[in-house]
Write a structure and sequence with these properties.
The chain is an all-alpha fold. The protein has ten helices and two strands; from the N terminus they run αββααααααααα. The chain has helices at about 5, 15-30, 40-50, 60-65, 70-80, 85-90, 90-100, 100-120, 125-140, 150-155, and strands at about 10, 15. A two-stranded antiparallel sheet has the order 1-2. A hairpin with a 3-residue loop joins β1 and β2. α2 runs antiparallel to α3, α3 packs across α5 (about 70-80) and α5 (about 70-80) crosses α8 (about 100-120).
Length: about 160
């Protein structure tokens, strides 16, 4: 039914699960920042965060299949807006909406870490774009003291 997931590639090389595993690893690395009762939800969201955007599942399909409004909300808020370019997809309004849910922010930060780590390690042309987006939007619009270790990690990765 959703065969796009099976054919999806990360960087046109790896199975898409490569990216999901990276996000999951980042979640595990910083899971101590999340209250214990939300940790299973966070780990599920690590693997599901792109389900609307890339697997073409709907909010209601996620909510119904996993019997979790909370999971559906996190995935929905992590889904970028429709747009013709990166700037339109990641608008200030999108960041403000995302910032209404702390758990969604955590997942998105783990996603940003995964993409940035990969682009850094591969010397991708995306790395400077990640840095610019972090400086202009991510840190100013999503920063919360509860996630200071993540922002410290990203500051170091970006050599800020």
């Amino acid at each position: 039914q959703h065969s796009v997931v099976c054919n999806q590639k990360y960087d046109k090389i790896y199975p898409y699960s490569f990216h999901l595993d990276m996000v999951y690893s980042n979640c595990k690395k910083f899971i101590n920042l999340i209250p214990t009762e939300f940790r299973p939800l966070i780990l599920a969201a690590a693997y599901g965060h792109d389900a609307i955007e890339d697997a073409r599942l709907s909010y209601n399909e996620i909510k119904d299949k996993f019997r979790s409004v909370e999971l559906a909300e996190i995935i929905y808020l992590c889904t970028e807006n429709r747009g013709r370019n990166r700037s339109e997809r990641k608008s200030i309004e999108w960041f403000k909406d995302l910032n209404q849910n702390t758990l969604a922010v955590f997942i998105k930060l783990c996603d940003i870490m995964a993409n940035s780590q990969y682009s850094f390690c591969t010397s991708s042309s995306m790395f400077p774009k990640h840095v610019q987006e972090y400086v202009e939007k991510v840190k100013p619009l999503l920063y919360t003291t509860g996630f200071t270790p993540i922002f410290d990690y990203l500051d170091k990765l970006y050599s800020l």
